[in-house]
Amino acid sequence: MGTPRETRAEQAEEVIERLEEAYPDSTISLRYSNRLELLIAVILSAQCTDERVNKETEHLFEKYDGPEDYANVPEEELAEDLNSITYYNSKAGYIKNSCETILEEHDGEVPDTMDELTELSGVGRKTANVVLQHGHDVVEGIVVDTHVQRLSRRLGLTEEERPEAIEQDLMTIVPEGYWQQFTHLCIDHGRATCTARNPDCADCVLADICPSAKGDSEIDLASGEPW
């Protein structure tokens, strides 16, 4: 088992420092050209890879231009346009309903507050945080996706299980200036090394400070289950 730093705040800072060195160009991987496209891409990314979303939105964003197009299209047609995305029927409904709300209540503009964004169909804190950070340059939280959830538990940064509770824990130990970048670093490391089922602990830059490193620890702290 690796030996974490003495406090969780020190552990978080060490994790950020090492991951920044390993992934100097870490940034959002979803492709979009405006706030609405960002919102739609993030809605589609739930339980779906960014690679798949980018492939789907390449033609989607050519066909639809602005909230009016999404609001007016029959939901069945929009769903058919998304049929390679997980839960495409539900997501088509979320997108159509969100665009209707954007037109009716926000003058056709994607809102710029957490409260207004989370009132949109299919939008929780994670999606809202992404839209605020990358669409409005407003950072008021940490995006907790599956990678952040997994890594923060494995690295001993939190014992919480729900994304909302994990976010609150992380906001107390991750320096505010890194709230946005922390997510991208975790995503890159989660994809490259600290994967869900078979993490490459032998080649991990964090292994010596990871209390759940495979080979030393018997437990995967992300799941609480034995390796």
TrEMBL record:
Domain HhH-GPD positions: 44-192
EC numbers for this chain: 4.2.99.18
GO terms under biological process: base-excision repair, AP site formation
GO terms assigned for molecular function: 4 iron, 4 sulfur cluster binding; class I DNA-(apurinic or apyrimidinic site) endonuclease activity; DNA binding; G/T mismatch-specific thymine-DNA glycosylase activity; metal ion binding
The keyword DNA-binding is annotated on this UniProt entry: yes
Record's keyword annotation contains Lyase: yes
Reaction equation(s) it catalyzes: Hydrolyzes mismatched double-stranded DNA and polynucleotides, releasing free thymine; 2'-deoxyribonucleotide-(2'-deoxyribose 5'-phosphate)-2'-deoxyribonucleotide-DNA = a 3'-end 2'-deoxyribonucleotide-(2,3-dehydro-2,3-deoxyribose 5'-phosphate)-DNA + a 5'-end 5'-phospho-2'-deoxyribonucleoside-DNA + H(+)
Keywords, in A-Z order: 4Fe-4S, DNA damage, DNA repair, DNA-binding, Endonuclease, Glycosidase, Hydrolase, Iron, Iron-sulfur, Lyase, Metal-binding, Nuclease
Family statement: Belongs to the Nth/MutY family.
Name of protein: Endonuclease III
Gene name as annotated: nth
